[in-house]
Amino acid sequence: MKNAAERKLAVVGLGYVGLPLAVEFGKIRAVTGFDIDAARISDLQSGHDRTLETTADDLRKAQGLRFTSSAQDLEDSDVFIVTVPTPVDKSKRPDLRPLIAASRTVGAYLKRGDIVVYESTVYPGATEEDCVPILEEVSGLRFNEDFFVGYSPERINPGDKLHRLTTVVKVTSGSTPETAQIVDELYRGIVAAGTHMAPSIRVAEAAKVIENTQRDLNIALINELAIIFNRMGIDTEDVLKASGTKWNFMPFRPGLVGGHCIGVDPYYLTHKAEELGYHPEIILAGRRLNDSMGSYVAAEMVKAMIRKGINVSGSRILVMGLTFKENCPDLRNTRVIDVISSLEDYGCQVDVFDPWVSAAEAEQEYGLKVLKEVFDQSYDGVLVAVGHDQFKNMGAEGMRRLARDRHVLYDLKSIMPVGDSDLRL
Fold first, then answer.
1. What is the pLDDT of residues 58-102, one digit of tens each?
2. Could you read off the pLDDT of 204-247 as tens digits, one per residue?
3. What is the pTM of this model?
4. Contact between 97 and 130 (Cβ < 8 Å)
5. Long-range contacts from 367-373, C-beta under 8 angstroms, 24+ separation
6. Which residue is catalytic, options 131, 261, 328, 348?
7. Which of helix, strand or coil describes residue 185?
8. Using an 8 Å Cβ cutoff, are 149 and 132 in contact?
9. 261 in catalytic set
10. Are the C-beta atoms of 25 and 190 separated by less than 8 Å?
């Protein structure tokens, strides 16, 4: 079997996960970056990454990287790293269609001795139970005889300029001991923080899915505490600051839980658990609570408006921020949409302002028209849903200028000092 240095790489899927990976490999070796989105490839070839995870300078430095939307260009590769999305459907069930489609694409070019490495988040067992049979079917080759697989879970945090691909330990694994060594060596070549070789693919899959399940549950606890403290008339942020003085208190904050990981990954684990006949009480309870926060926030906004004598039906509310987190353009699984929908159910007219998002993407994904600038000063309510730096710089005074004399300012992200807003979560 060829060693890592002799291998020809291809990265399949050039989104938030795949592009940074392809770029880092492209700085030290030849790599083919493949994506089915021809417009995405055209953007990257011109030096522009709309996800903002890589800069034009990063792309220039990756001299070994070539971009393509033609699957035929995968033909010469012998290591295929699959980094496609793994979302959930409307019923919160794992949607493996992108993963299955990518496996079919790779299977068509699979040769003896090749390795397929998956980075997409899945439930334990998915790589060998769901992906491998497709690779066998399409290629006509036998698993662990003719070709091999690995799993190395992604740990990309969109918008985070500190915890990058190269600075976070990479978990690796392979379907045979020799494959595991090759996969680990490949990643050691680009990850300065080092690697951790898991004893099996299933262990690596499980490690990834519980990382975000743990965060989801911790945030659910804080969200529940925020609801309780709100009824007590206690400011949650003040409580968390006080508790944070203890050395082992974990600094989680309440809020909307969306995005491609925390709001999705737990459903992959619970799906597998239920297949095995076990109903995961705690994980699903946390998910239910976090999924309900949008309607809770909207209800709090409406109650505050009523207390101020503002007629809710027909009122105008400005929601500031649509992305799932601050300072990034990522709209995937944003739960701000829940707040907007709930406010509209109360009869409110909602405008959305977010300088980070693509207006075309927001309209395509959610049917929303997003404002890139705000000049109107006649809003009955302003709700800060995302803590973008631009909003922090505006401060309460700048935000209140957008509203009528009688209005409600809801600082969902606690980006303003206590007392500057009318409501905090």
1. 999 999 999 999 999 999 999 999 999 999 998 999 999 999 999
2. 999 999 999 999 999 999 999 999 999 999 999 999 999 999 99
3. 0.91
4. no
5. 368/322, 368/337, 368/340, 370/322
6. 261
7. helix
8. yes
9. yes
10. yes
